[in-house]
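Quick one, probably user error.
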């Protein structure tokens, strides 16, 4: 699953630089996560870094983008091989 930022976001700017996949960006009103780039930090870290730094706990799993650990790892591999 990718993650999603809810409307409780206070635009504190701490999550965006923590994302190793550049999946977090400023939307119209709050930060948003591109589900095509979010791997929940699989391949990079043991836990999603954005969730670790969020002061208001507004980054849950996105029920509309369900993915297995294997699918997240495949996405990580695609993203990192494209970056080379």
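Nope, works fine. Designed sequence:
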């Amino acid at each position: 699953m990718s993650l999603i930022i809810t409307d409780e976001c206070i635009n504190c700017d701490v999550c965006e630089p923590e994302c190793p996949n550049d999946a977090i960006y400023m939307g119209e009103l709050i930060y948003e996560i591109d589900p095509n780039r979010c791997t929940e930090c699989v391949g990079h870290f043991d836990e999603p870094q954005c969730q670790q730094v969020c002061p208001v706990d507004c980054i849950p799993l996105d029920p509309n983008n369900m993915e297995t650990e294997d699918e997240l790892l495949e996405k990580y591999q695609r993203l990192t091989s494209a970056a080379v």
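The chain has two helices and two strands.
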